[in-house]
Amino acid sequence: MNRTLVIVKPDAVERGLVGDILGRLERKGLRLVAVQLRLLDAQTARRHYAEHVGREYFDALVTFITRSPVVVVVVEGPDDTWRLVRQLMGDKNPADASPGTIRGDLASRMAENLIHGSDSSDAARREIEIFFPELA
Fold this sequence. Notes:
By secondary structure, the chain is an alpha+beta fold. The chain has a single domain, classed as Nucleoside diphosphate kinase-like domain (Alpha-Beta Plaits, 2-Layer Sandwich), CATH 3.30.70.141. The chain is built from 7 helices and 4 strands. It has a 4-stranded antiparallel β-sheet with strand order 2-3-1-4. It is globular, with a radius of gyration of 14 Å.
């Protein structure tokens, strides 16, 4: 089985969408391996978003992801589970996300698009190590 990381972002937690989002992953046949509700500290957020350091939106990303609790999840599934999760998420911009996707159905603003999913198997390994080192 293959694993990837998902973060249900603060806006989704605040809106009470955690069950819907995790349910969509489970209904697709993915298994939840680890789930944790936590408030991210700035250091962890900066480590997670390291590839965006130096970009004009970096500080806004850190501020957003640390503003209130998130649900950090490791999901397991077939080869390229990360790709399957990304398809379920939909386009980063909710205006471009297809109906039936998480963002297409539930999000309305790009700055608050409900969910993060690793964008490659390498990113999944790195991100799982950050949040669940015991699973790495």
